[in-house]
Specification:
Elements (H helix, E strand, L loop, with lengths): L12 H9 L13 H9 L1 H21 L5 E4 L3 E5 L23 E6 L9 E3 L9 E2 L9 E3 L8 E10 L10 E2 L2 E5 L1
Antiparallel strand pairs: 1-7, 1-9, 2-7, 3-7, 4-5, 4-6, 8-9
């Protein structure tokens, strides 16, 4: 991704931020996103198809992993892009340390590019063990963080939160943590 020439303003505002964090120069219009650009993204056929596939994936894959038929889930997911040279985006933490996260919440992380070394999410094998290592695609509760991407590979990943509906305590769906939520 980072080796391609920069042409035209991308639909996704995070791409300009990723290039900037990676030390790349971007056109000034890439740094100016507002509601008009968000509407442009959300109206695109590509975004609509992505969201359709995402909702299907949550229903058919994530809900069974959570042991539930009905979920409240973050929608849309967070897309993260870490170009080579990109600094760490998060420090070591466990999401349960934040009051906006729910007991019983499950976090999903889906890289769509190869992840390895400093180009990965770093996890510990058990809570508070402190034995961080780059993720090799498993799941479980643990503290996690990212490093400066010192590889020559761009990481692109999605993450989102889900909670079985019965654990949502009957509250109106609107947010999971600081993220918009939907119910399936």
């Amino acid at each position: 991704m980072h080796r391609r020439p920069l042409t035209g303003k991308p639909l996704f505002p995070g791409l300009g931020k990723a290039y900037t964090l990676g030390g790349f120069s971007v056109p000034s219009e890439w740094r100016d996103y507002g509601s008009r650009e968000t509407l442009r993204l959300e109206a695109s056929d590509t975004w609509q198809e992505f969201m359709r596939l995402y909702r299907t994936f949550v229903k058919e894959v994530c809900a069974p992993l959570c042991g539930a038929e009905r979920l409240v889930f973050q929608c849309p997911p967070t897309m993260r892009i870490a170009l080579p040279g990109c600094p760490a985006t998060i420090q070591a933490h466990c999401d349960s340390e934040y009051p906006a996260h729910w007991h019983g919440e499950v976090n999903f992380w889906l890289p769509v590019t190869p992840v390895f070394g400093t180009n990965s999410l770093w996890l510990e094998s058990e809570p508070e063990k402190g034995d961080f290592h780059p993720a090799e695609l498993g799941f479980g509760e643990c503290r996690h963080y990212t490093c400066k991407n010192e590889t020559d590979s761009t990481r692109v990943s999605f993450d989102w939160r889900a909670i079985p509906e019965e654990l949502f305590e009957g509250r109106a769906v609107g947010m999971i943590g600081d993220y918009p939520a939907e119910r399936i």
